TrEMBL record:
PANTHER family, A to Z: MYOSIN VII, XV (PTHR22692), MYOSIN XVB (PTHR22692:SF16)
Location in or out of the cell: Cytoplasm
Chief localization: cytoplasm
Domain MyTH4 residues, every copy: 57-210
Name the record gives this protein: Unconventional myosin-XV
GO CC terms, sorted: cytoplasm; cytoskeleton
Length: 514
């Protein structure tokens, strides 16, 4: 038992938004501050004045924690933190060689390690920004509150009081900090819904905040080579950025936005970002992470009234088609399809409506997996015949027809992974595994016959597996089936993590759909 408020035991089941005059910080201090217990004999004005003083700026460090702790270590950490806070806010001289970034780190690190001190730290910062005569000091305090609200939730007991404090501060237009108080309110709401950022900020991020730069430039790589330039804030979640990009593309319906996913890519490691995750948790200081966007699920119908939307979909479908992300087996019929799609790709390029593609271009228009098995001469003859018998299309119309054509392929809409080993010996390896909105399938490496199907609704749990030996491949273990007949399968593939997280994201999104 560490403090009077039960700080960590209960989950935050409801987000209280207080109304009226209740739930002021003065009320909280009167009920829970250590010092308030010793003032219980006071009456009238002097009691009110003393209570108000409990939550007002002080020039002298506190000697004991504001909240009652029976654990002496917590009491000590609280008083030490107050001194760090005063140094950061400029109310006390900094230690030798100590800078502001280190002060912030110390405070955030303490909150990371001691959940039971969250309320204490909140109360300390709120106290130091209340009736503080030094504007620079107040601004520093609010900057810290901005970080606290995005990272750590107050307990259920303090939550309504902290919410009320932020409400009052943001509704006072005369104050210099009503804008940052609004940001803190939004942070707290997001933190409540999504659980707060996982990783502490890098020093460069804190330095930028101290200089008043609250947004960071981000380039999102879109399919088809389009770069989307945006600015993200300290606590932007993927969902907000997806909404912004999709609206620019003319895909404003929530159901369709759900089908797009941001991917964080670093050194060939690809990781889909869940919509409620904070982007900064993926963006490392070293600028080695790139963020891209893809459509992961194809449930809602595609529509082509917006040029950017068409270009993005064409870019993704084309890349997947040419790079083996859509499985195609070699047959006479496939050769005919490759010819039609080569013609559409040619027309999709501007000013190519009246010319025939060169051999080099035809090779570019052919999927890499089929280049060795399709005769260029036969393809040239076929495309030449098509061009003589068909009316050329404008680039936009050619792109739309290309997308609609590829969407008819049997394996369209599956995310495809090359798997080298499987525990089920009825599946011959190497093979492909595909994941779409409904199922996981195992596909024969050459005949492309489907040898196994696991409906996603039967997936009970899964986990990633480390390589068994040095230089071995990572894997995934899938537990599926019913309680009466449980089944397990493991597979080894270089993209194990990407496949695992893709399944997680699809499950998230399909649950929302149901």
């Amino acid at each position: 038992q560490s403090s009077v408020p039960s700080l960590t035991s209960e989950p935050n089941s409801i987000m209280l938004v207080p109304v009226g005059d209740h739930y002021t910080m003065m009320d909280f201090a009167t009920a829970y501050f250590r010092e308030a217990q010793s003032m219980q004999g006071l009456k009238g004005m002097s009691a009110e004045k003393s209570a108000a003083g409990l939550v007002q700026h002080t020039k002298v460090p506190i000697q004991e924690s504001l909240l009652q702790y029976s654990d002496s270590e917590l009491n000590e950490l609280a008083t030490k933190n107050f001194k760090t806070l005063m140094r950061f806010m400029g109310d006390q001289p900094k230690l030798k060689n100590q800078n502001e970034v280190e002060c912030i780190y110390e405070i955030l690190q303490l909150c990371m390690e001691k959940e039971s001190l969250h309320d204490e730290v909140y109360c300390q910062v709120i106290k130091q920004v209340t009736h503080n005569p030094n504007q620079e000091s107040v601004l520093r305090g609010w900057l810290l509150l901005n970080l606290l609200t995005g990272y750590f939730l107050p307990s259920n007991i303090l939550m309504p009081y902290a919410t009320k404090f932020l409400q009052l501060a943001s509704s006072d237009p005369s104050s210099t900090h009503h804008d940052i108080a609004k940001i803190c309110q939004s942070n707290l709401r997001k933190n409540f819904m999504y659980g707060g950022r996982r990783h502490l900020p890098f020093p460069v991020e804190i330095e930028a905040l101290l200089k008043g730069r609250s947004a960071r430039r981000l380039v999102v790589l879109m399919p088809g080579g389009v770069e989307y330039l945006t600015r993200i804030k300290t606590f932007t979640v993927a969902k907000e950025l997806l909404q912004e990009i999709c609206e620019q593309m003319g895909a404003g319906e929530q159901e369709e936005i759900q089908e797009f996913v941001l991917f964080a890519i670093r050194n060939n490691m690809v990781r889909p970002v869940r919509s409620e995750e904070y982007l900064h948790d993926y963006l490392l200081e070293d600028k080695l992470v790139t963020v891209s966007l893809r459509r992961l699920i194809w449930r809602t119908p595609v529509h082509f009234e917006n040029k950017i939307y068409t270009d993005v979909h064409y870019g993704q479908v084309l890349w997947d088609y040419l790079h083996g992300r859509i499985l195609l087996s070699h047959s006479k019929e496939t050769e005919m399809q490759v010819g039609i799609l080569a013609m559409l790709q040619h027309w999709a390029r501007t000013e190519q409506q009246n010319s025939a593609p060169s051999r080099e271009e035809l090779r570019e228009y052919t999927p890499k997996t089929l280049q060795s098995s399709i005769s260029l001469q036969a393809l040239e003859n076929h495309v030449g015949m098509l061009l003589r018998t068909r009316q050329p299309l404008q680039p936009m119309d050619a792109k739309i027809q290309f997308i609609e054509h590829v969407m008819k392929f049997p394996f369209f809409g599956y995310n495809i992974y090359f798997v080298e080993r499987v525990s089920d010996n009825t599946i011959s390896v190497p093979c492909f595994f595909g994941v779409n909105k409904e199922e996981i399938i195992a596909v024969h490496g050459t005949t492309q016959a489907i040898s196994s199907v696991i409906p996603l609704k039967e997936l009970q749990k899964m986990r990633t597996l480390r390589p068994v030996s040095d230089g071995g491949l990572p894997g995934i273990e899938l537990n599926y089936g019913s309680a009466a007949s449980p089944k397990t399968m493991w597979l080894e593939l270089s993209q194990a993590k990407e496949m695992y997280h893709t399944i997680v994201v699809i499950l998230d999104k399909t649950e929302l759909h149901h």
